[in-house]
Task: structure prediction
Amino acid sequence: MPPVSLSLDNLMADRVGASGLPTDFLAAEAASLRAAHAALHARVRSGELPFLTLHKETAALDRIRELVAAHRARFQDLVVLGIGGSSLGGRALLAALGGAGPRVHFPDNLDPDRFSALLASLDLERTVFNPISKSGGTLETLAQLLVVRDRLLPRFGPAGLAERLVVTTDPEKGFLRRLAKRDGLSALDVPPGVGGRFSVFTAVGLYPAGVGGVDLDAVLAGMAWAAELLESSDPAENPALAAAGALWALDSRHGRPVLATVAYADALRATAEWFAQLWAESLGKQGRGPTPVSAVGATDQHSQLQLWMEGPPNTVISFIEVDAFKTQLVIPPADLGDDPELAYMIGHDMGHILRTEKRGTEMALTAAGRPNLTWRLDRISGESLGALMLIWEAMTAYAGGLYGFDPFDQPGVEAGKIVAKRLLAGR
Amino acid sequence: MPPVSLSLDNLMADRVGASGLPTDFLAAEAASLRAAHAALHARVRSGELPFLTLHKETAALDRIRELVAAHRARFQDLVVLGIGGSSLGGRALLAALGGAGPRVHFPDNLDPDRFSALLASLDLERTVFNPISKSGGTLETLAQLLVVRDRLLPRFGPAGLAERLVVTTDPEKGFLRRLAKRDGLSALDVPPGVGGRFSVFTAVGLYPAGVGGVDLDAVLAGMAWAAELLESSDPAENPALAAAGALWALDSRHGRPVLATVAYADALRATAEWFAQLWAESLGKQGRGPTPVSAVGATDQHSQLQLWMEGPPNTVISFIEVDAFKTQLVIPPADLGDDPELAYMIGHDMGHILRTEKRGTEMALTAAGRPNLTWRLDRISGESLGALMLIWEAMTAYAGGLYGFDPFDQPGVEAGKIVAKRLLAGR
Result:
């Protein structure tokens, strides 16, 4: 079984009736999908968009591996100072795949209660801080860095400070790069053509993940496996292209702007949150675009399912299903076992029950005419996560082409920042 | 300053232009709002809907306080076996207000990897388990309970098992109540007229919160303060009624079904998640109703803000702002301070910066014609949380009246459960 596979069957009119896509949708749209594929991959081949080929950046990856090995041996805590695309990717990898070794923290927000509680809980002697900002000037990251620097410098001096800071930023420009040069800090690169939300396979995601015990080679192997699939302009071979086409059509032609990603595994909650940024920030433009919602099954069957079943017909459900969990946990028989409230579950493995709950929800949604699709992982592994995350990055980029947007900019986030900085500066 | 206050100014056409509500909206809708208020409060006064008067249930509250005191002294971990409305309220109170004492865990999902890792991490001798299910028959809760029972019974015997289980369920009916009677377990009640998502002020929310160090009297004082406001049928006096009317009109008349709750405090993330269930499950009905999204600021300025600023005009932003954090954390000057990337933040308290980021985002959204409202808390306390949660419960119930739905049922969640149980039973 491949690490990731996709089923779009329950999006089609023969399953969900009039609210679905025409059953020959992918064939009928072959030309527009091919065009979206060609446009993106031409920019990839020209070197303009390196996000699909980061697994081939051997020198950068070796530099990350080297720091990871040194810091796993030296430190017991890593604190990532980063927000948005500088936090969500590493956090997703760690939530799904983190192992033994240093703890990794992502305070991200400028919340004084949480940030001071975190700092108070650390042994600063054995903690490394990793400010991450592509521009090098992110407000939240620099504010946190100033607080941290103010605690480290008096205690450890300039050399001790430099030992405990690893900067991840643009290779040439910005405040963090200037600081790294001035103070002799370790520094890792965000390649110039890779935006924050497409940066999980750079040092932005890989350094924290590696320090936290994620097998980076497995993640990169999954990425490489997916990159092969993405070469094809045939949606039957390229799941990112098929899903992009279907979701774009369901939003723009069938009135379904909400995409609810429902992961049936607690470890994938953060992956769904990472995807929400990718989808929202890339495609929410020009008064159009889809709204992502992230959820976990079966938990959110007890929270959002009523809405998905009987609410407005504006939502597509994107399930993530895991074929095999690490742990077998059979529901044991009990002296209570003849109770009809219990009999049906006894003897089943908990992971099987969870998958069956997904299957029941999927069947009920389909019967109710609610379009849904399924991403299936063989197991939660570096291979499957690396593959899924690259496929979703490509899906987002293809969708940008279909909507006619630039998926790599975010012009709408500047206005609020400018007002906030002006207010803080007293102007 | 009151514990909670509401501003709807940025929903109005004089602020956001044509996408807003008429500036005299609340006055113009006074009759329909009064009718929704009268209909709900008649059911409250008849005793049919006790969720607004739970702070007066002295005997039930005393019973909770007694168990809380005993178990805080006796145990070091509490594991809540509950999902959806049996988990989200207690979790929200603890995330915002939890203090020293026993750790409280909410595994909720049937995830075998996470559940077995949790059990392996506990000292079972000093752990109490709290299965919570209003019906007494929730699949996930009973499956977890069977696993736990199978570990406790051989080790501690029937008496030791009974010491380590507290059941929260219907006072008369269902499997959990039968089990409690049969095995002499401690048991707490979910009052029959209170649905899961309206149960945070019963033992469902209060027992776990109390064990985890939340000041229950403060929460109940906040609830009582809010219950007074709710007596008024004048939307100028009753913020729940004003907000219900505005959000209902923005969805049903102005095409804004998405309600994004953005809490500018990490501690309130779980409160926004609790609200998402309340809003979705109560109002997603008959092919209509709103879609909740929960987010945290400033974090999600780096994730969803692009969509809210420039995406489709289908969203209302509901901010939660905290006037004063517990911790003062001033951004220190540094020898780097003349850098223009830093100068504007130095000397400001981190909480002030966070509030200013909210203010910048609010001003930018308003200028872009994007309707938004603000719930303002004086600080994060039992009083403000208790008040906010009761106001939101009432807001949801009033909105149900305005939509013409029964906000207290959830008919859409049964179909998938039935399929899953049938598949598990091999039928």
Remarks:
- Chain A has two domains: 4-42+219-408, 50-216.
- The mean pLDDT of chain A is 96.
- The first helix of chain A runs from residue 13 to 16.
- Residues 169 and 177 of chain A are 7 Å apart (CA to CA).
